[in-house]
Amino acid sequence: MNLKIIDLGLIDFNKAYDKQLELLNDVYKNRHSDYLIFCEHPQVITLGRKSKAENLLKSESFLKEKGIEIIKTSRGGDVTYHCPGQLVVYPVIDLKKTFKDLHKYFRFLESVIINALAKINIPAVRKQGLTGVWVQEKKIASIGIGVRRWITFHGAAINLNNDLDGFSFMKPCGLDVEMTSAKHLLSQDVDREFFKNIIIEEFNNY
Amino acid sequence: MEIKLPTLGENILSASISYWFVKEGDSVKKDVDIVEVSTDKASFNVPSEVEGTVKQILAKEGDIVEVGQTIAIIE
């Protein structure tokens, strides 16, 4: 893949979304390179197209008091939570150049994350029928994508060093599941730059 | 022209209609998105293959449609 890397740092969810749309348009018109966006978001709960109201366990006013916005998004999937310390990856790539198959793209994203976690000694796996990345019974990364003209946007959120408390305000991805993080599993912080570079390597290995 | 739910992947048999961007009577240009469908964790926009008017919308938001099924007619 001919990937340009863009690191947006800590950025509002909506601003990152606007950036993705801009790059989507660029990939559509120019067709030479694809983009890999990395960022983190201030606390936010996002709802995908398959969200069910009962999967959000707290009221809007409760969440507002905690400073957590709720945003409806154009990605597939259910509800999830983003916060600082979580590494969010938004690949804006033209699947016509690789494989025009949504499920293959999910498996590819899962492989990238699984291989990257293995490099920091975390034995992560995929689970049949449950898109995402798991460490035993706990979920460490969530995936939800959008596709326009076979160009992807949205992507994956990997719990690197973030707090997991916010996930208790919902049924993440509509599941009765406990989330985990790399920091929790290794009992130490993971260097963001180091891990980001491993992810880039895994994308480039394709 | 019949607009059908396109192939989304080897093992993907159906998708649900999330959101129509057009209604019957609207005029559309070629390649403009007319509907968003979703499957599992992906949302996918389907464009019009022709320029014309939306004569009929054959599936409503929330319906599950099969790959290859006609979802709209544009003339």
Oligomeric state as shown: heterodimer
Give, in spatial order, the strands making up the sheet with the most strands of chain B.
1-8-6-3
CATH third-level topology of chain B:
OB fold (Dihydrolipoamide Acetyltransferase, E2P)
Annotation field: number of helices of chain A: 5
CATH superfamily of chain A: Bira Bifunctional Protein, Domain 2
Shape field of chain B = globular
CATH topology of chain A: BirA Bifunctional Protein, domain 2
- Mean of pLDDT of chain B: 95
Q: Strand portion of chain A, in percent?
A: 25-35%
Instruction: Tell me the distance between the termini of chain B.
Output: 6 Å
Helix content estimate of chain A: 25-40%
Which pair has the most extensive contact? A-B, 22 and 19 residues
N-to-C CA distance of chain A: 7 Å
Number-wise, the strands of chain B total 8
Report the average pLDDT across residues of chain A.
95
Helix-strand category of chain A: alpha+beta
Spell out the key features of this protein:
heterodimer, A: 206 residues, alpha+beta, BirA Bifunctional Protein, domain 2, seven-stranded mixed beta sheet, 5 helices, 29% helix, globular, B: 75 residues, mainly beta, OB fold (Dihydrolipoamide Acetyltransferase, E2P), four-stranded antiparallel beta sheet
